[in-house]
# Entry
Amino acid sequence: MNSGRSLWRCGARPNWQTITCNTPSPGLPLQACCRLSIYIKYTMAKETESLRGQLLIAMPGMPDPRFSGTVMLICYHNKDGAMGLVLNRLVGTLRIDQVLDELKSDIRLPEELLRVHLGGPVSTQRGFILHGGELKHSDSHIVTDDISLNATTEALENLVARGGMIPWRFALGCASWTSGQLEEEIREGAWLTAPARRELIFKKELPLMWKASLIEAGISNPEMLVAETGNA
# Structure
């Protein structure tokens, strides 16, 4: 799994936008008075045998401690690699209105929308917005029939203006894999895959998401899993 290489390597050039960072929270991997760059890649090569729109569930024997106990949504996947967002981790107690100068609104948002999620260890100074498919935006990338990915301030402002009527999550960073790397990790038993359901992604409490995802994958008793794949 990559820990710092540029995510976008193929297809169209990303559409870069920049938003201003306020005072970062201790533990946030940003320097004071930084610029938080967010971007979205609006085309990719044709996906074959794609895992896009699938959940990745870390197995108990996950060798990388950064992903222990995580649930991830695969947003892009093709022959050149993959990109996903961790769904069940937060950047401490940081709130989105503490990070983004552009988020100036008198609309009272639900507390869960103000939390900043930790999307992964790659590109931790970049923000990503996972949102319900009801928001039709030219820069949104369709992940599933009812979930899309965006990274523009325009989309963020649109979602805020709707006051939580459309579900969304804001994350810093992502996870990425080179060609064939994700497939190899799955073969080695690091990850289990399952279909992504919108209700689980946007409504399930974060501490409960890992077990709930295993049940989605057909494991009725997650406690029976053991740390070493293949042993019972």
